[in-house]
Write a structure and sequence with these properties.
This protein is an alpha+beta fold and about 180 residues long. It has 6 helices and 9 strands, in the order E-E-E-E-E-H-H-E-H-E-H-E-H-E-H. Strands 6-9-7-8 form a 4-stranded mixed beta sheet, with helices on both faces. A 3-stranded antiparallel beta sheet has the order 4-3-5, covered by helices on one side. A two-stranded antiparallel ribbon has the order 1-2. A hairpin with a 6-residue loop joins strand 1 and strand 2. Helix 1 crosses helix 2 and helix 2 packs antiparallel against helix 6. The longest helix is centred in the middle third of the chain and has 25 residues. The two termini are about 30 Å apart. The structure holds zinc ion (ZN). Zinc ion binds next to strand 5.
Length: about 180
Amino acid sequence: MPTRRCTACRSESRQATLIRLVTIDGEGLAVDLRGRLPGRGAYACARAKCLLSALKGAAARSLRQRVRDSAPNDRLNEVEAGLLRLVREGLSLTARRQGLTIGLRETLQDLSSGPIVAAKDCSDRTRKMVDQSMRDVYVLGTQEELGQWSGRGPTGVLGLSGGPAARRLINDLARLCSLRASQMA
Ligand SMILES: [Zn+2]
């Protein structure tokens, strides 16, 4: 799997877990969450500190252009909103491809090693059982929202299959939760 270096902290990570920045006509910086925009890219960890530093000028060297964002904090909020949108779209797509298990029981019975999404407002008992499953757990949204995003009724738990269909979704979930956690720190 390709790796890239964060322009801010200089640590190396899997490319899919980083945030890509590109220049538009050598003027401003644009965030390329899908990693598809043409041209030279600079990367930052999905952490507020690294992303802000990249936007404020650390990305310039990798891009070989003197670019900095004029409103980095606004840009950070856009990144978070963009990642949330990708996660919502990814969940509904994965649900349509039968790549999701819905609910605690069904998810724990599924033997794939894919991660679990747990609602912020799920019960303590549910949370404990999910944590004991030894799978990666991302806490996101309310039970009502998880129901909407997966196209079913409210649920506290969604399980993702470990297959390739969900791989991009898993990376987007990881980036979103990493960014949010870094903003709380
Ligand atoms: Zn970094």
